[in-house]
Design goal:
Layout lengths: L6 H7 L18 E12 L3 E12 L11 E11 L5 H8 L2 E4 L2 E3 L3 E4 L14 E11 L6 E11 L1 E3 L2 E6 L20 E7 L3 E5 L6 E5 L2 E4 L7 E7 L17
Parallel strand pairs: 1-11
Antiparallel strand pairs: 1-2, 2-8, 3-7, 4-5, 4-8, 6-7, 9-10, 10-15, 11-14, 12-15, 13-14
Length: 248
């Protein structure tokens, strides 16, 4: 795991970490800022498939001198607490990043660093990891569209099966003089696949749709979207028709 750039932060937090949490903390400084995302979570029984379309724009003042040969892109995912190796994480999630016709595997992962606000309603027995991809500069333009796909196992929360997604968004205020942002460019939707229905457990600031068949929200940084996954109600049975009078 990458550790040099995160050593100062890790040392500061070390007294507060339990032994099982001593995994490198990451959130890299990237010269690309997220300006839009459309995420679809297809929820089945026990497992969800997550597919996200992400738009990034290059911000020159964030770039290093000299520029690095690769650029980091990071995404959050919930994993069982016992996961402490990258190969174990990728085996469970099958995490992939797609840039045009090229496909990339994760290069690293680590704990989500402590921030001003921390996610609530974290499912039992899990922790939030940040998965890092390293993309070579030649494949990147000033504006880049990336697609991410992975499987998200369902976990338990208050005795219920839960599907969840955690957005990681930029500090929009810090970029207001350089980039234009619109809330309409950020959306996360859940849809059932098979005989399940959805019920939102989390409190979310901007909900666009909330039904057992579809939940859609405008995401907020580190505001988890957590849904109970329940068996779909069986269709009522039609009683058999009563026989008519016997013919005479």
């Amino acid at each position: 795991m990458r550790s040099l750039r995160t050593i100062p932060l890790l040392l500061l937090l070390a007294p507060f970490l339990r032994a099982e949490d001593e995994v490198a903390l990451v959130l890299s400084r990237s010269p690309f800022c997220l300006v839009g995302q459309t995420v679809t979570v297809s929820v089945g029984a026990g497992m969800s498939m997550v597919e996200g379309q992400y738009e990034f724009k290059y911000v020159p003042r964030l770039d290093g001198l000299p520029p690095s040969e690769t650029v980091s892109f990071e995404f959050a995912v919930l994993v069982p607490k016992e996961i402490d190796r990258l190969d174990a994480l990728t085996e469970i999630t099958q995490f992939k990043l797609h840039a045009g016709s090229a496909t990339f595997d994760p290069a690293d992962f680590g704990l989500l660093p402590v921030g001003p606000t921390m996610p609530a309603l974290i499912p039992e027995g899990t922790r939030i990891m940040v998965v890092t991809f390293q993309l070579p500069r030649p494949v990147l333009q000033k504006q880049v569209a990336l697609r991410v796909t992975y499987f998200q196992p369902h976990y338990r929360l208050a005795g219920q099966e839960v599907a969840a997604y955690l957005p990681l968004l930029p500090d929009f205020e810090a970029f207001k003089n350089e980039l234009l942002f619109s809330r309409d460019d950020f959306a996360v939707g859940f849809e059932p696949v098979g005989a399940v229905r959805l019920r939102r457990l989390s409190v979310n600031a901007a909900v666009m749709m909330d039904t057992p068949q579809a939940v859609k929200v405008h995401p907020v940084d580190r505001e988890i979207i957590a849904l109970a996954v329940e068996p779909a109600a069986a269709a009522p049975k039609t009683p058999p028709a009563k026989p008519g009078p016997a013919p005479r």
